[in-house]
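Margin note: ligand = protoporphyrin IX containing FE.
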Amino acid sequence: MKYKSQKIAWYFFAACMGLFLLQLVYGFIMGFAHMGMDGLHDIIPFNAASATHKNLLVVWLLAGFMGAAYWIIPEESGRELWSIKLAWVQLASLLLVGVTAVIGFHLNWWEGRKFLEIPRELDFLVVVNVLAFLFNLLMTIWKGKRITTTASVLFFGLLSAALLYLPGMITFDNIVFDSFFRWWVVHLWVEGVWELIMGAIMSYLLIKLTGVDREVIEKWLYIIVGFTFLSGILGTGHHYYYTGAPGYWLMIGGIFSALEPLAFLGMAMYAIAMARKGGRKHPNKIALTWTIGCAVMSFVGAGFLGFAHTLPSVNMYTHGTLITGMHGHMAFWGAYAMLILAMIAYVLPQVTGRKRYTDWKAEWAFWTSNIGMTGMVGAFAVMGVVQVYLERKGGMDFLEVQEQLHVHAAGLVIAAALFTMGIVLFFMNFCSYGMPNDETLGQED
Ligand code: HEM
Ligand code: HEM
Ligand SMILES: [Fe+2]
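Resulting structure:
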């Protein structure tokens, strides 16, 4: 750890851990509800559990991006963070907004609009919070010794993510317009600007962990990520097929979104090639495992399973079914959750000074969670395909179909239990590193 202020990252990561575990509790509530065991319905109806599950996901991923940025930006800029106090205020207010939103969902205080459920009043607080965060980063970069490509891409990724939050805050009376602009946030985040953030964090990790030259890693990674980003912009069309948007989106969305998987594949192959080529044997092997795992699983979840329902002729039947859940889980897990877990795994030994590189919990956490998630996605796929055939092709009633799915939902819950074991192991390993301290201060990794 080069700078004292980088320690703030640990507190953001600790927040990630807490919110992530809570997210899983709500996943189980919905998993059991899909099995027909909906005993909590009067207190936590499905819509409240669903909003809580997804928003906790978004909040912990954002906390993870922020922690990663507070770690990477000072190091890349060659100076302490501009204001450590502001970072603390910002962490506290982020948690406050998150917890208020979650309580609100249980009291029916929400906006609907999948993923953007938090009420408008809280949206404004999110904007202020993110502005404070970006300002802190900008001042650090501005006053720093150098501006690296990785730092700029990370900053512009985060800035664009903040700007793209705004279209989701416009009020429309017309649901077609409302849905049209909701995708500017949801789609252009995950298949657009978040990929810049991902590219920057992945590039930082690969530079540190493989020892391959910064120039080589940055150049190629940004070309690949740039391609995903560009195909992703017009790829937004895969959400405009039958929504009341003009018909030309069928063609544009179909073609450009079908190109996106190629870039994800390129990134996975490139990351593997770098890891093999790298002369440096970094002792933190598990951090490299998570990094490569992220590149590979994001291809599987976003690229492969995204392609599975992105063509207009397929999406006509699969839209809004559990096929979407199949893809959504693996894509978010592979691309963003694993990325943050990779960053946490990399930072922990430095921020705590405890070089516990070979721990069974860390290894088992990786494999158990990934096998568990693969099982969950398999269960969602079975449920989704059955749903499409019975409901969309066979014309059976929605709720009648849901009853047919109870047995497959049991498979989902069993796989989720395995996945959760992996995450609990990751958390136990996180805890056994102890609190952050100054033991490695001044040492560059
Ligand atoms: C204990 C583990 C988990 C369980 C049992 C679980 C279960 C569920 C269930 C039942 C749904 C609702 C599906 C529907 O009715 O449409 C859902 C939605 C969702 N979950 Fe999870 N989940 C878990 C973990 C995760 C994780 C780790 C992530 C992200 C990395 C995640 C991301 C999502 C997303 C994005 C949705 C919305 C899917 C859509 O757009 O259709 N979940 N989850
Ligand atoms: C890391 C990148 C990605 C993430 C995290 C992600 C996640 C998600 C989530 C959560 C949804 C449900 C959104 C909602 O209903 O509000 C969704 C929908 C969708 N995604 Fe992705 N996705 C990614 C990349 C891709 C890619 C590359 C493709 C195409 C090749 C794709 C194709 C689709 C399609 C077609 C839908 C609409 C499903 C429907 O009509 O119900 N996704 N994605
Ligand atoms: Fe999309």
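Residues 24, 27-28, 30-31, 34, 50, 53-54, 57, 322, 324-325, 328-329, 332-333, 337, 416, 419-420 surround protoporphyrin IX containing FE (ligand 1) (CB under 6 Å).
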